[in-house]
Amino acid sequence: MSNASVPVTVFNTNTNACAIVVNRGNQISIPGTGPAQNWIAQQPNPGQLSYSNGSPAPNVFGSMGGNQVEVIVNGMPMGSPLYITIPQSGPVFSLQLYIFFSSNSSVSWTLLSNGQPIGSGVS
Q: Cβ atoms within 10 A of the Cβ of 24, count?
């Protein structure tokens, strides 16, 4: 069952702009941050991603299986894709994915549900 009312936001904490591809969906651009933005993590236009209490799908994070997120900088993938599992331990009212990278070969991430950490990793 899809729940389009659940906001899903991906935050780019880096100075370089990047793009993401969620579960082989459309490429979504996210601007970089810096002094002009008071170093606040940037996000894409809202409504491009959603959450489903079901299987992952293009541009849809799902709780029944792994989600694949590719991070792209300057047209090139950063490291290997992120594989993100969303626990089915409680209701999801919002998802926030923070992306961090410091080299051309790895990406770190942290996922929050309803503002609480539920996963993290490095690719």
A: 12
Two structure tokens written together for 100 = 């961090």
What does the block give as tokens for 6? Answer: 């659940």
Cα 107–Cα 19–Cα 50 angle in degrees, nearest 5: 95
Q: How many Å apart are CA 41 and CA 79, to the nearest integer?
A: 21
* Residue 88 CA, distance from chain mean position: 18
88-119 pLDDT, tens per residue? Answer: 888 899 999 999 987 667 899 999 999 999 99
Q: What is the pTM of this model?
A: 0.90
Tokens of 81: 């894709």
Where do the domains of the chain lie, and which CATH numbers do they carry? 2-122 (2.60.40)
For residue 36, which phi and psi values (nearest 5 degrees)? -65, -25
The answer to whether the beta carbons of residues 111 and 84 sit under 8 Å apart is: yes
